Each structure stands twice: as structure tokens, then as C-alpha cells.
Amino acid sequence: MSGIDCRQAETLVARYIKHTLSTDELEEFLDHIEHCSSCYDELETYFIVHEAIQQLDEKEDGTVLDFRELLEQDIRRSRRYIRQKRWLHFLSVIFFMAVVIVAASFVVFLVMEVTHFL
């Protein structure tokens, strides 16, 4: 993973908030904001504005939202999403390898049986 710089991270903020980043982009973005307080602050600002606008559209029940906590929850959800995607990819590779091994074993078995009868 090559990592991204601040300029690249800034271009990903809106897509992060809309949850439209690919898994690789999401992971690089989260890694960057974890170590760059300036980019994290920018994300936080945009996130708060986005959430505040969302709240204006929803029913007012008098509760006060902790936007910082909402952002942290969103980041944790994104990290879980990345782990799940990576785990599913790993399992699919293992499954594919198992199918190939079983198929190859079957072919070897058939070849041995055919040559045994010849």
C-alpha cells in the first residue's frame, strides 16, 4: 500500500462521507487521517456539517448530538467493513484453492485408474 498525501486525502473526504470509496481507497484514507491531524480536522468539519444538515431534515426530539463521537463511530464502522471485506476475500481465495486441489486430485485419480487398466 503506497499511502496518500494530504492533497489526495482532501479529494476523498466527500466520498468518505457518502460511503463511496473502494475498500483500498477507504483503508488508505483512514490510515492517512489517523496520522494527519490536519486532514482529520478537515474531515471532522465536513462530517459535522453533513450530519447537522441530516439532522435538520429529521424529526427534532431535543437530543444533543456528539458529532465527534458520531465521526469516531463512523470510522470504527469503516474499519470493520475493511476487515470484513479482507476476510471474505481471504476465504474466497482459500475456497478457490480447495476446489482446485480437489479437482487436480480427481484428475490424478482418474489418470491413475485409466493407466492401471491399460
General description of the model:
By secondary structure, the protein is an all-alpha fold. It has one domain. It has 4 helices and no strands. The longest helix is centred in the C-terminal third of the chain and has 51 residues, at 67-117.
Structural class: mainly alpha
H/I helix tally: 4
* E-strand count: 0
How would you spell out the order of helices and strands?
Answer: HHHH
Count of separate structural domains: 1
Write the layout of secondary structure elements.
Layout: H1 6-17, H2 23-35, H3 37-57, H4 67-117
Pfam family, one: zf-HC2
Transmembrane segments: 87-112
InterPro entries: Anti_sigma_zinc_sf, Znf_put
Concise description?
The chain is mostly helical and 118 residues long. It has helices spanning 6-17, 23-35, 37-57, 67-117.
Short descriptors:
single chain, 118 residues, mainly alpha
